[in-house]
Amino acid sequence: xxxxxxxxxxxxxxxxxxxxxxxxxxxxxxxxxxxxxxxxxxxxxxxxxxxxxxxxxxxxxxxxxxxxxxxxxxxxxxxxxxxxxxxxxxxxxxxxxxxxxxxxxxxxxxxxxxxxxxxxxxxxxxxxxxxxxxxxxxxxxxxxxxxxxxxxxxxxxxxxxxxxxxxxxxxxxxxxxxxxxxxxxxxxxxxxxxxxxxxxxxxxxxxxxxxxxxxxxxxxxxxxxxxxxxxxxxxxxxxxxxxxxxxxxxxxxxxxxxxxxxxxxxxxxxxxxxxxxxxxxxxxxxxxxxxxxxxxxxxxxxxxxxxxxxxxxxxxxxxxxxxxxxxxxxxxxxxxxxxxxxxxxxxxxxxxxxxxxxxxxxxxxxxxxxxxxxxxxxxxxxxxxxxxxxxxxxxxxxxxxxxxxxxxxxxxxxxxxxxxxxxxxxxxxxxxxxxxxxxxxxxxxxxxxxxxxxxxxxxxxxxxxxxxxxxxxxxxxxxxxxxxxxxxxxxxxxxxxxxxxxxxxxxxxxxxxxxxxxxxxxxxxxxxxxxxxxxxxxxxxxxxxxxxxxxxxxxxxxxxxxxxxxxxxxxxxxxxxxxxxxxxxxxxxx
Length: 590
Description:
The chain is mostly helical and 590 residues long. Among the domains are: 1-65 and 159-237, Serine Threonine Protein Phosphatase 5, Tetratricopeptide repeat; 69-152. The protein has helices spanning 2-26, 35-42, 46-61, 73-83, 90-110, 113-129, 135-149, 160-173, 177-184, 200-214, 218-230, 238-255, 259-273, 279-295, 302-315, 320-337, 341-361, 364-372, 375-402, 404-432, 470-485, 496-503, 507-518, 522-539, 548-554, 560-571, 575-584, and strands at 444-448, 453-457. It has a two-stranded antiparallel ribbon with strand order 1-2. A hairpin with a 4-residue loop joins strand 1 and strand 2. Helix 4 (73-83) packs antiparallel against helix 5 (90-110) and helix 10 (200-214) runs antiparallel to helix 11 (218-230).
C-alpha cells in the first residue's frame, strides 16, 4: 500500500514536471535573462525528462529486497529485532541506542564492518531523530561514527556517503555550519549514484549551499546550488532537487539585494514545489518573496504572502521553528509598518518564545559535551583547581602573617596527603592485580588424610565465604569463566538476565551462588571487576590519551555517575584523582 502511495505521488510530480516543461518551452527565451534560470531550464529538456521518466518506471518495476548488512544470520536477526523496538519514551530510546551499540561491539569483534557501522549509524539515528531524543548520546555516537568512517573505504561500507550526510545534517540543524560542511563534503561525488535512491550527493550539495549562505559566503553557496543543477545524477525526486536549487539561488539573490531577480527565480518553481509535501521549503520561498518586497519597499504584496508563510510553516515537521521565526519576523515588521504596534509586539513575543524553545532544543552544549566526552569531568576539574587556588591564596596569606614555620608545617602536611594518595593508589593497584583477567575459576577437591574431608580451593573469589556449598562453587566456576575469563563484564548493559540466558541457569540460582560465595550481589560482583579493569587502564603509562570517562565506558559502565560512585566506593578515591596521582608517581620513589 505504501509503495502504491509513493508511486502515485511520483507520478503526480512527474505530470507536474511535464506541465512545467511545456510552460517553460512556451516562454520567449529573451525573458530568461538570468544565467541561473537558463541553467534550471536546461534540466527541463525532453531528454532530461524522458531519462527521469524511464528511471522512475524501472525503479517501480523492480522488486525491492530488504538489505542485509552481514553474512551472519544471528547478527542480522538481532538487527531486525532492535529495529522493531519502540522509541517513544526516553527510556525506550536509551534502551534502543544501547542495544544498537551492543550490536556494534559484537559486529566489530567478529569483523563485520558493514554491520558494525550500520549499527552505529542506527544508534545515532535513534538518539537524534526519535520522539524523545537524547542529543548528548547522539553526538557522542556521531563522533565515534565519524572516526570509524575515516578508517574504511566506500567499498567496505557502501553507505559511507549516506552516513556522512546524516552526520552533516545533524550539525547543520544545530547551527554548527563549519562542522556540517566538513562532513558533507565527504558525501559529495562526481561518480554516478549507486542506485536510483542514492540521493546523498544532491542532498549534501543542498545543505552545504545553505550552510555557506548562513555564514554569508554567498559565492560558495551559489556554487553548490548551481552544481546541483549541473549534476548528471538521475535519482529519485531529481526534478524536485532542481527546483529547490533554483529556489535557494533566489533566496541568495534576495540576501544580496537583487530583489527583482529573486522574485523571478522564486516564482519560476513555486507552483511546482507547492504540489509536493515539503511545506517548510514552500514557507521559506514565500518568506523570500516577502523580504524581497520589503527591500523594494512594496508592502502591498506582503500581507497575503506572510499568511502563506505562517500557514506552511505550521505544517512543516522537519524544521518548523526556523520557518515560524521567518513568519513572525515578517508579520511583526509588516504590522509595525502598518502602525499596528500591539500586533507587532504580539508577533515579537511569539518570536522570542520560539528562540527560547530553540535554545533548549538545539543547544550547542550537547555538541561540546559529546566532542570531549569528558565535559562534566572538565567542569569538575576546573572547580577543583579553582578551589585549590583559593585555598592556596589563603594559605599563602596565613604564611605571610604567621611565619616561615607555618609554611613548613603546611608543606609537611601536603606531602603527607600526597603520600597517602600514593599509598592508596598502590594498594588499589595490588588489589586490581590480585586476580588477573586471564585467570580461570578452579574447583578442586583435595583429600585431607588427617580429617578425611574434602576441601575446596578457589580462584576468583577475593574472600570466599566459609559456608559456601560445593554446588554454589560449581556455579561460580562457570560464572567466573564466562564473566571474567571472557571479559563479559566490559559489555555495556551486561546483566543477570544475559548471564542466565548464556549459562542456562535460573537467575535466582545465579544470584544465590554469587551471594553465598562472595557475600555480594550481582551488580557489586560485576562492578568490582570493572573497577579493577579501570585501575589497570588508568595505571598503564601507554594509556595517556584516554580520558577518565572513556575508560569508564571501555570497562562497561553505562554512565559517568555509576562509574564514579562505584570507583570511589571500592577504592576510596575518585578515578580522576587516581589518574592524577598515578601520573605524578611516574619515576617517583619515597
